[in-house]
């Protein structure tokens, strides 16, 4: 027996070999619509400028605006990498003015386990966007760059909220559906309503309206979990573990961005928690 036979399986195991004769990239089949060519470059630039300008206007900080756009692109590219790896590509990134971005695959995931991996790949990979801002802070000693670190971590952390259509709902939703579909539905509705209320009480009206429309769309769906093979129990356990690991990483990066400003871990925790209070 080889030593590799003793290695515990990981989330990316059992995927097609990289050197297979036919790459795992979606191609149009007879009767299928043509492959998505992606967002037009001109509209992509305009959408990015509109989104960046809106964030700058709301935050009053060009560093926050640049960090948010950069963090968004890296986050969505994480989804794209996972989609392409799992045979759902070639995936595309779309920038939505005043709202954010979305990664679109050519095909649905073959299983809910693949869907979980795709959903968590965005926040996990998106944390890499904080590295240049950490580097600028170390090189210059100017705390303004830590705003970029924190906003990038915050974007990825908020995306883990299990409220449709955020990544958290796609990571934890299948786990709850494994218990019973109505458990998932009830949890998504309750958490979605809380997140919408949080957005309204904190003045994030566009974010709140976007989530409200998404939640309404999910409620109107005839089948709550229509795509792919359902999770089995080992996959459900791994999904929860990966979700908690990514959430902990996002929280850790956020605290690392706050610590030099706050002066202590307790003050950094209090400052970070303040961003999630209702009606602040």
Describe the protein in words:
The protein has 280 residues and is mainly alpha-helical. The protein has a domain at 110-274. The protein is 62% helix and 4% strand. A two-stranded antiparallel ribbon has the order 1-2. Helix 3 packs antiparallel against helix 5, helix 4 packs antiparallel against helix 5 and helix 7 (181-201) packs antiparallel against helix 8 (205-220). The radius of gyration is 20 Å and the shape is globular. The protein starts with 40 loop residues before the first helix and ends in a 6-residue tail after the last helix.
Topology:
Blueprint: H1 41-59, H2 62-85, E1 92-96, E2 100-104, H3 112-126, H4 131-140, H5 144-158, H6 167-179, H7 181-201, H8 205-220, H9 233-262, H10 265-274
Antiparallel strand pairs: 1-2
Helix pairs in contact: 1-2, 2-3, 2-5, 3-5, 3-6, 3-9, 4-5, 5-9, 6-7, 6-9, 7-8, 9-10
